[in-house]
Amino acid sequence: MRFDRRKDLLGLRDITREEIEVILGTAIPMKDIIRRDVKKVPALRGKGVITVFYENSTRTRTSFELAGKYLSADTSNLAVSTSSVQKGESLKDTIKTIEMMGPDVLVMRHSCSGAPHYVARNTTMRVINAGDGINEHPTQALLDMYSIRERKGTLEGLKVAIVGDILHSRVARSNIFGLSKFGCELRVIGPSTLIPPGIDKLGVKAYANLESGLKGVDVINVLRIQKERQHGALFPSIDEYRELYMIRPEHLALAADDAIVLHPGPMNRGIEISTELAESPRCIVNEQVSNGVAVRMAILYLMLGGGRDEIAG
Amino acid sequence: MKLLVKGGRVIDPGNNIDEICDVLIINSKIAAIGRDLPITGDEDVVDAGGKIVCPGFIDIHAHFRDPGYEYKEDIITGSKAAAVGGFTTVCCMPNTDPVIHNGPVASYVRRKGEEAGLVNVLPIGSITRNLEGEELSEMAELAEAGCIAFSDDGNPVMRSDVMRHALEYAGMLNLPIFSHCEDLNLSRDGQMHEGYYSTLYGLQGIPAEAEEIMTARDVELASLTGARLHVCHVSTRGALHIIEEAKSSGAHVTCEVTPHHLTLTDEAVGSYDTDTKVNPPLRSEDHVNALVKAVSSGLIDCIATDHAPHNVESKDCEYAKASFGISGIETAVPVIMDRLVHTGLLDIVEMVRLFTLGPSRVLGLCLGTLTPESKADITIIDPDAIGRVDPAAFHSKGKNTPFKGMELRGWPWMTISGGKIVAREGRLV
Amino acid sequence: MKFREKALIMDEAAIRRALTRIAHEINEANKGVEEVALVGIRRRGGPLAHQLASQIENIEGIKPPVGVLDITLYRDDLTTLGPAPIVHRTEVDFDVTGKIIVLVDDVIFTGRTARAALDALMDLGRPKRIQLAVLIDRGHRELPIKPDFVGKNVPTSREEIVSVCVEEIDGENKVIIEEVIE
User: Fold this and answer.
1) H/E stretch holding B351
2) Tell me: the pLDDT tens digits for B284-296?
3) How do residues A151-202 score in pLDDT, each as one tens digit?
4) Which strand (E) or helix (H) includes residue A117?
5) Given the residues B12, B153, B266, B306, the one annotated as active site
6) Which of A129, A160, A119 is nearest to A51 (CA)?
7) I want to staple B395 with a disulfide (CB 3.0 to 4.6 A). Which of B66, B80, B409, C152 is the partner?
8) Is C73 near chain A, with CB under 8 Å?
9) Which residues of A are less than 8 Å from B207 in CB distance?
């Protein structure tokens, strides 16, 4: 297990199956801590975690902050939208400024793919990618994988369908990279305009038809339709999208008997997922939220829990 | 003033010369080429044994950023970089500020090039005013001021009617239109070539078709108007097919490729190094292979650098925010030598043609040969010199190169411009 | 690093006798075991706690509840170690508040593990009393901590390693002293 020797967590593309297993395994005792009365262990006492979100996401940020606090790290947030960006400061300078304040780990979200990779090259802080452009969202995929494994007992060989705007989805991409390391059969379902080119070369089968794509799957991961992406001519209307791709309870009959439904949140009820399904016990969106804190605790612990001199690169 | 270049392998495709011989220069002109030309004692002698002596290399596509963006490059530093890179003639694109869209701006570029006194600096005028793609520039005035072609490089002319009229009008002046072929509606927000790697790296793609559709349009308009069309930085297999057909049907179409499109693939973008960000983007391997094949088969008329220097701030940032472009004028020769000539993909004589006679014919100028009485512009290459690409040592202000750190074999050894030695082994003289 | 077995300190029978005695002592010290619960410290404290609970049951007819404590996240040497150590689950299924908790570990050395265990236990609730039972006390304490019940005192040098083997993990019950050979 070499996770602890990795300086940054930038994506699941370049991480090994063994590293993923260590993260998911460590998240199990972390989840126990969240359920206790005293939700605090001293493991990361004196460590600093800073979140910098160039795109707003209160829930992911809060999840990271609580994860840090439960481990006794000091967490804080730099509200970039109201500070440096408006003053025209470069990303590099902002990061250097933060680094000089002394935190050990930087959790960042950015609208540009590869921005965390760029930052990681330019700082001694450890960098955790909390979503970059349309590239990766590794902690979301890890919590999805944790949630699936918790329900299914294993990830090995599962049939997983991801439904929605695959082209612009960092969640989809990280899930594909992560799950493919566990021999999952991966499918993406969505309008042809939202399926990225060359997806088949990643070992993923693309379906335009919801019903045929869902046949026999164990897991359905429903993506949020980003209305703000609708500037182009990618699909005609939300109404037509709902007609063709909204997941309803009757779709579960097509899937495997004990199929589960995931959603990264926040849900657009009545657009990509029907309210009936969102509230059914087969939909584990709420568990995903708690698991998100546990998985992020595991990552913070594995990255900061050891001695600093062991960090390579 | 006499200069005798002795004992080099002289390659002059324009005169079908490829042999070990001497070149005598008297008063900035080629005086004689021949074996064992006598040393009379009143000349400077350059021992070119083991070297390759060629007509001065011509780069028909460079951005010297002057006027307006002198913090990225100016005509002085650009000229120095060109001289060190083995070029004696450089054509400067008009996307400056102000745009080269009238006589005074064009004259400024020419004059400043002459003041630099290192290489021939030839301005390219814009097709449209301010590169806006709407109204034609005053092309006759630009031609009068020394422009040798017209281009809206970087801002493709989207309106087909404007492009048609530009070709017609430039045709009247017998000057070529240099077209940057890109359908902006298709390439919008794209950061790299669209395909497997754009999906893998999570970057918005630019499909090959964005280039091919506009190449097809411009080729059709060239046929319609009978004018001269030069297709800039061809980077896709499909665009090559279109150009091949146009050429065989007799249209006045020429084209160039860049060293980076010939040698790098889209896989290189994986590190999100902004120095790999260029337009057209680095393409996938099948396109690169098609380009290499086209360059050795003679379909390609010339190699051009698309030298696009940038200041650090334009590149040291997020990938999507970085400017497109590669500072390429100081690495063009070694990249082609190392990756194409030494690997056997491109014959050395063919390479010299692509840097000399080829671009000269695109422009319709009497450059790029060692014909006696022509201006003594000479590039001498040391085919076995090995060096590492060190952007910090560039004479260009632009340090943005994806070739940084690479060890390459085959570098410019000496650049002679107008009979004067201007650069030698990477240094200005 | 490689180790060599230097001496056998306790065999299976010796361990059983020591645990029997400790079971009696726990019973006596607490005037019965109605309020007592055992919490083993991972890893080898866990099996020892279960063995001890069985011994108590043999004596008193009551088997005290047994839990297992993972103290990794409470260690005071986390950031001086190399890689972050693997974290396991803490499995204490009963409420510790109001109970007499006997922490069980294989060896007490510096006392730092016991300190971490005390903190970890406190975060689970408020026990009435906490006691400490160890199979081996090898000395060299660095904190003011003293076990309440000791199987055997073994004077050692700092360089030596005391290894307790338990059947559930190692396949046999024994205590040996090892030394580093390379």
Assistant:
1) helix B348-355
2) 999 999 999 999 9
3) 999 999 999 999 999 999 999 999 999 999 999 999 999 999 999 999 999 9
4) helix A115-121
5) B306
6) A129
7) B80
8) yes
9) 197
Helices A285-304 and A58-70, interaxial angle, to 10°?
Answer: 50
What are the counts of helices (DSSP H) followed by strands (DSSP E) for chain A?
10, 9
Interface predicted TM-score (ipTM) of this complex, two decimals: 0.91
Q: Give the architecture-level CATH label for domain B2-52+375-428.
A: Roll (2.30)
Phi then psi for residue A74, to 5 deg, are -90, 125
Helix, strand, coil shares of chain B, percent, nearest 5, are 35, 25, 40
Nearest CA in chain A to C88: A29
Is residue B22 annotated as part of the catalytic site, yes or no?
no
CB contact A101 to C (< 8 Å): no
How far A112 CA sits from the closest chain B CA (Å)?
6
- Give me the mean pLDDT over the B40-49 stretch: 94
The half-sphere exposure of A48 on its side-chain side, counting CA atoms within 13 A, is 13
Smallest CA–CA separation between A39 and chain C, in Å? 8
CB-based contact C86 A301, cutoff 8 Å: no
Residues A193 and A252 in one domain: yes
- Residue C69: φ, ψ to 5°: -115, 125
Asked if B69 and B96 touch (Cβ cutoff 8 Å), the reply is yes
Indicate whether C82 pLDDT > 90: no
Is residue C87 within 8 angstroms of chain A, CB to CB? yes
Q: How many CB pairs under 8 A join A and C?
A: 69
Residue pair A44/A301 in contact (Cβ under 8 Å)? The answer is yes
Cα-based distances in Å from A247 to A153, A185, A271, A300, B106: 24, 20, 9, 34, 63
Containing structural domain, residue A228: 138-285
**Is pLDDT at A309 greater than 50 in this prediction?**
no
Chain C residue with the nearest C-alpha to that of A7 = C83
Residue of B199, B267, B284, B314 to mutate, testing the A interface (most A Cβ within 10 Å of its Cβ): B199
CATH class of domain segment(s) B57-363: alpha beta
Interchain CB distance below 8 Å, A112 and B316: no
Identify all chain C residues contacting A43, using CB atoms and an 8 Å cutoff: 72-75, 78
Domain segments of chain B as ranges: 2-52+375-428, 57-363
Report whether B304 contacts B261 (CB < 8 A): no
- The beta strands (E) that lie in B106-183 are given as 120-123, 150-151, 177-179
Identify the CATH number of the domain in which residue C18 sits: 3.40.50.2020
Residue C19 lies in a domain: yes
Do chain B and C touch: 3 or more Cβ pairs under 8 angstroms? no
Judging contacts by C-beta atoms under 8 Å, the chain C residues touching residue A33 are 73
3-state class of C163 per DSSP?
strand
Residue B10: partners with Cβ closer than 8 Å, 6 or more residues away? B17, B18, B19, B20, B21, B23, B33, B53, B54, B370
Q: What is the pTM of this model?
A: 0.92
**Disruptive mutation site among C70, C71, C72, C73 for chain A (greatest number of A CBs within 10 Å):** C73
Q: Are residues A306 and C81, on separate chains, in Cβ contact within 8 Å? A: yes
Q: Which of B201, B271, B317 is the closest to A90 by Cβ?
A: B317
